[in-house]
């Protein structure tokens, strides 16, 4: 055991006091925010409702003593993934298995609108291809989000050489076109992606970065968001970034002060080089929750292979396999990460990035399923949480003399059934809720 000199001992004590001072404080008698009991308590508090439901027949008469089944059909919380690989024209076994596993677990999908890929030739957008993907989402009750409307990466090459005034008009015009074309199918958009670094990203040759530098980041964000809002007043608009530093906080603050209609703050959480840990996950939630906006973790990756501390994010690896020990680790970390985020009241959605290892970004083993479409432990862990642990019903209930049933349910969409008929209802807010539904038989088809 090393013996410290008096000066070294004092220095060590001061360093320890600094570390302690920087740790999140917990009120006296309160549970630590990362304890299992506190996570469970928060999930019950923020993700469920205590419901008194009155069921009546078509004439408005309470169904006293009726046998009633209450069944959850969808979560309010958004559990998503990018759905770039969805191809409804492909009937191969891999594609069918991909779509089946996707719809079995998820209710949210990110669809590709990278300008250079979506419109490789000026005036020839790939609307039909992405529309088919969005229609598949709608048919499977999966909410779709477009990503992104403005980004300096994957630019349209045909912008090169155009005056910046024309680039500006084209950028705002493509936002208006896409938001208008897909209204009703896609009403959620990552409007601006990775704006913190945008003005300084290859400004000598990147026209979108040059436009950002000319207008100023806040002004570009304001114009793009205002265009999206004017085009679809009901749309949910996100600002999205991987930067979780004070720079992103300052940008959000400046945008809100300028009146930018940001509905949701998007946070990327790619962890190819190692897991954040529960503490950092919680701290990031707290950091951005102070703006009073819902948070979406928009791009989440926890990979299932070798941990590589040095990663080329512009490259593609062909020697990075998924391993049994890596898959075990990934499953445990995914479960912890999702529990932390699901328990935080500001978080409204989590989007995993690559659903399958096949075609995954960087060639990393970052999917929830393998290249042969078989599920990894991470997929199984999420399926168990999302569709069992955090799922309500079917509940077999008996109405009292006034036609009331009482239950606790996770927020989302529900079906209510009895001999008298069926009805739909929604649980939208946590806490106590008094609702009523009329159960009526479905009309007979002619």
Sketch the major β-sheet.
8 strands, parallel, barrel
Note the beta-strand portion.
15-25%
Examine the coordinates and then state which fold CATH places here, giving the name of the CATH topology of the largest domain.
TIM Barrel
Question: What's the shape?
Answer: globular
> Topology as H/E string?
HHEEEHEHHEHEHHEHEHEHEHEEEEE
Category from helices, strands and their pairing: alpha/beta
Number of domains: 2
Low-pLDDT runs: 1-29
Question: Mean of the pLDDT scores?
Answer: 93
The level 1 CATH classification of the largest domain is Alpha Beta
Number of strands: 15
Instruction: Give the number of helices.
Output: 12
Q: Tell me the radius of gyration.
A: 25 Å
What would you say this structure looks like, in words?
The protein has helices at residues 6-22, 36-47, 93-105, 115-118, 127-139, 164-181, 207-215, 217-231, 246-257, 278-289, 324-343, 377-389, and strands at 48-56, 67-75, 78-82, 108-112, 143-147, 186-193, 236-241, 264-271, 295-302, 347-352, 395-398, 404-410, 412-418, 421-427, 431-438. The protein has an 8-stranded parallel β-barrel with strand order 3-4-5-6-7-8-9-10, surrounded by 4 helices. It is globular, with a radius of gyration of 25 Å. The protein is of the alpha/beta class. Residues 1-29 have low confidence and may be disordered. The protein contains 12 helices and 15 strands.
């Amino acid at each position: 055991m090393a013996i410290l000199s008096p000066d070294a001992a004092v220095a060590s004590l001061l360093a320890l006091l600094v570390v302690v001072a920087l740790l999140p404080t917990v009120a006296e008698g309160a549970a630590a925010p990362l304890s299992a009991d506190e996570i469970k308590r928060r999930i019950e508090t923020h993700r469920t409702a205590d419901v008194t439901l009155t069921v009546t027949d078509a004439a408005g008469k309470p169904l006293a003593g009726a046998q009633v089944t209450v069944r959850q059909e969808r979560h309010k919380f958004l559990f998503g993934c990018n759905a770039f690989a969805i191809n409804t024209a492909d009937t191969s076994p891999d594609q069918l298995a991909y779509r089946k596993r996707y719809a079995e677990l998820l209710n949210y999908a990110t669809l590709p609108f990278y300008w250079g890929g979506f419109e490789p030739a000026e005036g020839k957008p790939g609307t039909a291809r992405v529309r088919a993907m969005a229609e598949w989402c709608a048919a499977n009750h999966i909410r779709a989000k477009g990503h992104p409307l403005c980004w300096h990466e994957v630019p349209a090459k045909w912008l090169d050489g155009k005056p910046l005034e024309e680039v500006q008009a084209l950028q705002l015009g493509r936002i208006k076109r896409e938001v208008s074309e897909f209204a009703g199918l896609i009403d959620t958009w990552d409007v601006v992606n990775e704006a913190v670094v945008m003005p300084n990203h290859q400004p000598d040759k990147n026209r979108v970065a040059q436009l950002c530098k000319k207008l100023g980041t806040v002004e570009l964000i304001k114009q793009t968001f205002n265009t999206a809002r004017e085009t679809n007043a009901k749309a949910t608009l996100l600002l999205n970034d991987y930067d979780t530093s004070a720079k992103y906080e300052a940008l959000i603050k400046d945008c809100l002060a300028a009146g930018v209609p940001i509905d949701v703050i998007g946070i990327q959480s790619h962890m190819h080089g190692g897991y954040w840990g529960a503490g950092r996950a919680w701290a990031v939630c707290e950091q951005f929750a102070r703006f009073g906006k819902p948070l979406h973790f928009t791009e989440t990756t926890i990979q299932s292979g070798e941990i590589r501390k040095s990663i080329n994010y512009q490259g593609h690896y062909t020697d990075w396999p998924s391993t049994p020990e890596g898959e075990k680790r990934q499953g445990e970390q995914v479960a912890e990460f999702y529990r932390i985020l699901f328990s935080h009241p500001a978080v409204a959605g989590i989007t995993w990035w690559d659903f399958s290892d096949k075609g995954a970004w960087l060639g990393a083993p970052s999917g929830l399923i393998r290249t042969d479409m078989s599920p990894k432990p991470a997929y199984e862990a999420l399926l168990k949480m999302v569709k069992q642990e955090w799922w309500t019903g079917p509940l077999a209930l008996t109405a009292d003399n006034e036609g009331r049933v009482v239950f606790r349910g996770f927020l989302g969409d529900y079906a209510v059934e009895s001999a008298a008929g069926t009805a739909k209802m929604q649980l939208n807010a946590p806490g106590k809720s008094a609702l009523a539904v009329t159960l009526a038989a479905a009309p007979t088809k002619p």
